[in-house]
Amino acid sequence: CKTCMVNVHKQLPLHFIECWNGKFFEPSSLKELGLRVQLGHKPCSRCPNPLASHHDFTVLHTNGVHHVGINFCSCPHASPHYIQLLCAMWFPATPINPQTAVTFSCLRQFQHFNCLGKLPAYEYYRGLDIMTTSCQRVPLKERYRVFLRTVLEWQHLKMCKRGGRGHAVSGIKGTAPGELALDCPACPHPEKNLPPMWKDVEATLA
Questions:
Q1: Domain that holds residue 134
Q2: What is the pLDDT of residues 82-123, one digit of tens each?
Q3: CA–CA separation, 117 vs 124, rounded Å?
Q4: Which residues form the CxC2-like cysteine cluster KDZ transposase-associated domain (predicted)?
Q5: Does residue 65 lie within any of the structural domains?
Q6: Residue 48: which residues within 8 A CB-CB, separation 6 or more?
Q7: Cβ atoms of 101 and 151 closer than 8 Å
Q8: CA angle, 187 as apex, 183 and 189 as ends, to 5°?
Q9: What pLDDT, on the 0 to 100 scale, is given for residue 70?
């Protein structure tokens, strides 16, 4: 039942589905069945002034690449479109007229794989492409450059967060070159990991 499928997936829009055509199951999508994700409001609530997104809006998730129908909120006090996407935990590829987004879960997963297993961004994206093609059986538009740009923005914001730039008066824009670098714990740092009178100690050979 298409109506039941849409109702069940109102809060799960990033699932791959198949529909029975009378002889066999064929790939379909929640967007084709009429599912529209409303942003800017509480889940499953309606907006009095919905604004449809780009017809080819794409979301990259941990299980593949999805084409999703999205309605932005255009009420008088609505947040910008990129803020509405961030509130849904979808990182927009661009703050101006976004047409692609990457879920926070996808970005976190790639960062873990990249740091622990040295997995390149291209190989991770290829994995998403293969998973999507195996389910949908249709070729996808290239989204690698968009994914790579989003990953770089995500990593930069993470570095600024760990550096405490959100609490600085000057914010991220006031970050000086090298200010986000981490000191090597094995290297000698005066007043950190050296004794107070380290300059007065005579040089001796081990």
A1: 35-163
A2: 999 999 999 999 999 999 999 999 999 999 999 999 999 999
A3: 11
A4: 30-134
A5: yes
A6: 75
A7: no
A8: 75
A9: 94
Q: Is the dihedral of CA 119, 145, 12, 18 positive or negative?
A: negative
DSSP code, position 164: T
* pTM reported for the whole predicted model: 0.85
Residue with tokens 């007229």: 97
Distance CA 135, CA 28 (A): 9
Tokens coding 105 = 């879960």
- Cα–Cα distance measured from residue 140 to residue 67, given in angstroms and rounded to the nearest whole number: 10
Phi, psi of 125 (to 5 degrees): -65, -40
Tell me if 154 is assigned to some domain: yes
pLDDT of residue 108: 96
Structural domains in the chain (count)? 1
Nearest to 54 by CA among 14, 97, 86: 97
Regarding beta strands 58-61 and 90-92, do their DSSP bridges make them parallel or antiparallel, or are they unpaired?
unpaired
Query: What distance in Å separates the CA atoms of residue 38 and residue 26, rounded to the nearest whole number?
Result: 27
* pLDDT value at 205 more than 70: no
Q: Is residue 7 part of a domain?
A: no
- E strand or H helix at 72, and its extent? strand 70-73
- What's the rounded Cα separation, in Å, for the pair 84 and 64? 22
Residue 206 pLDDT: 46
> How many CB atoms lie under 10 A from the CB of residue 149?
14
The pLDDT of residue 42:
87
Strand partners, 92: 101
More confident residue, 114 or 195: 114
